[in-house]
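Supplementary Methods, section 5.1.

A reviewer requested that the exact input to the structure prediction be made available. We therefore reproduce it here, unchanged from the version used in the analyses.
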Amino acid sequence: MEENQARSEVAPEEVAKAEKKEADKERMANARAARRRKPAVGKQAPNPKAPVILSEGSNIGCVAPVSAAKADSKVVWFSEVDINQHGNVSSDFPAWYFDQHIRELQEDIARIERNVDLDLYRGQHLLKARKEIEMKKGRLTAIQESKPKLEGARKDKVASIAKELGIQIGRAMFTREEKQRGLVDAHVEADRWMNPCIEVKSDVEADYYKRKGVKIVGGKVSRIQAEICWKTMVKALGEEPIANTERLRAMR
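The structure derived from this sequence is encoded token-by-token as follows.
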């Protein structure tokens, strides 16, 4: 019975569908990488040592040269695995943030490998299963390696930024006492949630928002975007498995 169930799990149609889906992702990733390596005709390739510095009140800034040391210290929060076919970040959080997704990918690989060991595939289906394993392992490795390596001075800097950002977020939240007493104004809460109210105080934060396409208005972003940035930093620092903003809320 178990063998029949395993065979139904890996029906040829499902294997072919999974292979096509992964192959399409691989082709799109290769195409994006090729476009980045070769600038469009008539356009000058961007200078990697001249990042955009955001001006106050706008997400459009001027180009200012910086030293190579500063450029190398830049934290890369999103990688190729987070970019969609349009060249934009496809999710609020980078792929490495989601432990559950990583576990599911690991389980998929283990399941297909187990079925191969049980000799449940034959001929072309065996070749497809092995190719699927290879593609899934490649994606898993890419996700795991895309997590920022925060050590030494870089880690201290991100920790300091996250702490200051957390303080700002906490101040923009109603207190626990106000929630318990029913004193939360829904209109004020919605305004803080959606409209710019959290000051962007560092180049690390500015670069994070810019990469996501978030507009910085008057040097500020909305609380929801600030919370996403804070959660990403806390997760990268390894301080807690799930970064919960409720711990930032003041008691009174």
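Residues 39 and 45 are 6 Å apart (CA to CA). These observations are discussed further in the main text.
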